[in-house]
Please model this.
Amino acid sequence: MAIDSIAALVQEAERTALPLWEVILREDLKEGQGTREDSLRQMKRLWDAMKASGDAYRPQERSHSGLAGGDSAKVSAAMENGALYGGRFFQEVIVEALKVSECNACMKRIVAAPTAGSCGVLPAVLLPLLRRGEDEEALLRALYVAAGFGEVIASRASISGAEGGCQAEVGAASAMAAAALADLRGGSPAMCANACALALSNLMGLVCDPVAGLVEVPCIHRNVVGAVNALSCADMALAGVECRIPADEVIDAMAQVGAAMDDSLRETGAGGLAATPTGKAIAERLASES
Amino acid sequence: MRLFDVIGPIMTGPSSSHTAGAAKIGLVTRAMLGGEPVKADILLHGSFAKTGRGHGTDRAIVAGLLGMLPDDPRIPDSFALAEQAGLAFSFTTGTLKNVHPNTAALSVENADGERLEVVASSLGGGRIQICRVDGIETGFSGGCNTLIVHNEDKPGCAALVTALLARFGLNIATMQLCRNFPGGYAVMVIECDQFIPADLAEELERADGVARVTRLNLDV
Model:
């Protein structure tokens, strides 16, 4: 069985009574020459890098264009002042999503998950859990669930903004994070599938419209949306809410929507926010500077 | 696509295609040149030319030429580090024919005066393809240990190379033969499962009809 169907992964987990992450790990090992130990070691290496991906954040630092930086610090300060909606956990998720995405824009070391443009989503939901004492082994297992579901999305649809728009990047990251969160709270494989399906449904149609073609505006703020969407969808799935359309069909629909998107909305920097008067003015300013 | 293509790579931002792939292009070019590069003239094409500066494509290519991996945190400082390392570089933008939008053409030279010209594309997710070596069409990824043999296009050259690989106990993963015109100049690109030793390259270089041998061995 190739990792190309969420229904098949769920059925395999139910048939064998193995946890979802174990099914995904075993299927992945069948595709290559590496050992189980190699795979676990590599996932640990990625997790360690993910944990450190916000460490180099400096509130005063700006990206080369000057467009990105400082937003995580703003939200963090407002959080400490008690000025915001949402509980502490929710606020930390926002702070983390911005921090890692801003670090990416400022050329720091991050983990593409599934892409660099969407690198803030998974750490945003996982790191606040780690700080609350979540077991690291459980987090590593959840990363397998995220990666396995991401692989299905990549195989049936795409994880590239140039091919499928932002729904394929932040949408995919959000669906992966939602499944990981459902798994971490002891959700069944079917609940993980529902969390994934709900998250991807909610971001369906999201276009890739980066101002001046850079991974900054609106990518950084959309990482926040991906993260909080993952939380809501994991919560719904854990409560027993089912996505009325099965996960694989949602992914197939996302692929079709991506294919139907105009070129200007697929990472060309020619449509959407990039084509607004302000977006165009920014692009012109940057072009004249280089 | 495997799990670690979905989560990963660990990389210096902001873009897997424009930054991580660009660093890898520099790194593979350096490995093929052999020795420390002292001069590099780089042309950026398409999206690399248009948004490369904002994505640090230029700094990533120079970082790769200096031997940095795509996750090296020093990538943003590569211009200053190049000056310290004695690497003189220049960038231009232009249009190349029939290539991917994210493509760079590099002309590099090492301290021994050896030169190499490489055209390479970044395909997304940090994966790259080497499209041309010294003007001859190729198509390898730089993801395996790779032996590149420049030879005269005449009978027996491929047999000579494969015999030597067998003697050194190297298994061939893929092999491509490319040439500019019949009887002219040819390039053999052989991806191997094992480390390609210097002895093998030296022996090949002495063989009749072989003009030049370059090796790419992956550290990781």
Q: What stands out?
A: The longest helix of chain B spans residues 16-33. The interface with chain A takes residues 1-16, 19-20, 47, 50-51, 53-56, 59, 71, 73, 75-76, 124-126 of chain B (CB under 8 Å).
